[in-house]
Amino acid sequence: MLVEPGTPTVTPRPVPAPEQAEATPRRRRGRPNVLSREQVIDAATAIANEDGLDRLSFRALGVRLGVAPMTVHRTIGGLGDLHAELVRRTVDEFTATFVWPDEWHAVVRTFATTFRDLMRTHPLVLESHSRRGALVSTESDAVVARVVGALRAAGLSDAEAMYAFFVVYDFVVGHTGVQVGRGASEAGRPERHALVGELLGSHSYDARFDLGLDVLIAGIEARIR
Questions:
Q1: What is the pLDDT of residue 33?
Q2: In Å, what is the CA distance from 26 to each residue of 22, 29, 101?
Q3: Which helix (H) or strand (E) holds 147?
């Protein structure tokens, strides 16, 4: 072998046999940042229910999942799409549990109480509805059709049946918004609390909801007659 003058000699490293090279794969540093969409949506649902939609960010998701924020972004896309997807999944899973009765009074009551339970269990649904627009999901569309269909079968016109549904819907959203927003807080007008205490002794959101729903159903029944 000829070597140019002044060129240092280097002993070449032996090349491992193919089977030896495959037996010792290159070691990766740290754990791989691999997420599924389900993992991200589960984490987003927890954050939104616990802290509100305003606290839902790639950074917050990364902290909860133990990955970099960019990993979350690559997995799920934009926050707007994430908001829509987590609300859609929550509504679909919950409303799929509806067990519908046959009689229209019971249909309306089932819808109202189950919808209230959904928003109390998952405040993100109430917040999303109040701040970002109507709820959109496959199951929610089926719920609307079921309630409106029952009211039409009871004798309301198409328009009245739809508006009656929205009256009940608006009542449930409004009542739940007051309950979730205020909870057991003593904030508000002191004279109002004094009046409630004088007349009722104690206040029950459940009794308040039941009475309101009874009044609405009685009004629908009067309209049918």
A1: 57
A2: 9, 10, 62
A3: helix 138-154
Model confidence pLDDT, tens digit, residues 57-67: 889 999 999 99
Distance in Å from the first CA to the final CA of the chain: 110
Q: Cα–Cα distances in Å, from 101 out to 104, 109, 116, 155, 189?
A: 8, 10, 18, 18, 41
Average pLDDT (38-42) is 88
Phi-psi domain of 151 (left: phi exceeds 0; alpha: psi -120 through 50; beta: other):
alpha
How far apart (Å, rounded) are the C-alpha atoms in residues 87 and 122?
A: 9
Burial of 47 (0-12, 13-18, 19+ CB in 10 A): buried
Encoded tokens for 133: 């627009």
Instruction: Report yes or no: 124 and 77 within 8 Å, Cβ to Cβ.
Output: no
Largest CA-CA distance found in the chain, in angstroms, rounded: 113
Interior/surface letters 88-106, b for 16+ CB within 10 angstroms, e for the rest: bbbbeebbeeeeeeeebee
Q: What is the pLDDT of residues 181-193, one digit of tens each?
A: 744 444 444 455 5
Query: SS3 sequence, 4-16?
Result: CCCCCCCCCCCCC
Helix axes 104-121, 79-95, angle to 10 degrees: 140
d(CA 79, CA 59): 11
Are the beta carbons of 200 and 130 closer than 8 angstroms?
no
Q: Cα(82)–Cα(181) distance, rounded to whole angstroms?
A: 24
